[in-house]
């Protein structure tokens, strides 16, 4: 992107408004619906998230097509073969690590309980049934593709153009830091404490993109992380429900003795 246009600034509405919409309305509504046992609440939320992310992603891709921009500036063009290969190899290593971690956790009951407590904050969004699990796969893949195009593709390119006066490396560092902070803030609905951690994950993705000059390794790793998180949440919920069918649901209800 050589110079941001009015159509580019319109995209800022997504980065500024969507996190607050999710935090103040969409997430609380999902929490209430799942707590009340509304049928299909999670599935509806999954497809709503998928639709929103794809709408803005298609808008970004349309900007590049209509204005004849180089796909390299969106990190979707040709990348150096060696760098891309190393990035994809890193993605494969991450997937293999998650597979091994998954087997290790579900082979040890104590680890299952520990993981269940750690992921309980995301229970309203986590799949509980086989049907929800399959729908969640589409959410994870969408997040991997769309969020990388939006945050490490569009936003990073936009910030590079905005900070071009700072010089090459200073502009890149500024774009990496700011885009990572924005990415972390986009997940504020999950709680304040997770924002810095997710911002660091965004920082990792941005570094991978800069080093490989491609979004594809980051897309692969991002989707793998989300798939792994969903599978873990589904697995520990299923294990806890089978062990004591009423216990898991009881843990989510307010303590009436308080």
N-to-C span = 56 Å
Gross morphology is globular
The domain tally reads 1
Strand tally, please?
Answer: 0
Class computed from helices, strands and strand pairing: mainly alpha
Rg over CA atoms, rounded to whole Å, is 20 Å
What does the average pLDDT come to?
Answer: 90
Major sheet details? none
Unreliable spans:
244-258
Total of DSSP H or I helical runs spanning 4+ residues: 10
Give the % helix.
Answer: over 70%
Q: Which range does the strand content fall in?
A: under 5%
The SSE order reads HHHHHHHHHH
Describe the structure.
There is one protein chain. With 258 residues, the chain is mainly alpha-helical. The protein has one domain (6-250). It is built from 10 helices and no strands.
């Amino acid at each position: 992107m050589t110079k941001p246009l009015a159509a580019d600034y319109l995209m800022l509405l997504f980065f500024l408004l969507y996190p607050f919409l999710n935090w103040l309305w969409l997430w609380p509504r999902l929490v209430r619906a799942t707590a009340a046992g509304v049928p299909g609440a999670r599935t509806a939320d999954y497809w709503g998230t998928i639709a929103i992310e794809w709408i803005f992603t298609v808008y970004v891709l349309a900007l590049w097509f209509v204005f004849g921009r180089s796909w390299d500036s969106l990190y979707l063009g040709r990348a150096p073969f060696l760098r891309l290969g190393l990035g994809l190899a890193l993605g494969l290593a991450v997937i293999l690590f998650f597979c091994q971690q998954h087997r290790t956790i579900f082979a040890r009951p104590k680890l299952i309980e520990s993981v269940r407590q750690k992921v309980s904050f995301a229970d309203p969004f986590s799949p509980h049934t086989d049907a929800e699990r399959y729908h969640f796969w589409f959410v994870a893949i969408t997040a991997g593709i769309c969020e990388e195009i939006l945050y490490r593709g569009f936003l990073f390119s936009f910030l590079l153009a905005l900070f071009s006066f700072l010089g090459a490396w200073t502009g890149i560092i500024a774009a990496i830091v700011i885009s990572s902070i924005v990415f972390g803030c986009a997940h504020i609905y999950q709680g304040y404490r997770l924002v810095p951690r997710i911002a660091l994950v965004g920082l990792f993705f941005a570094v991978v993109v800069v080093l490989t000059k491609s979004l594809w390794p980051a897309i692969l790793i991002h989707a793998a992380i989300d798939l792994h998180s969903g599978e873990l949440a589904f697995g520990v919920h299923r294990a806890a429900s089978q062990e004591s069918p009423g216990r898991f649901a009881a843990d989510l209800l307010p303590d009436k003795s308080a």
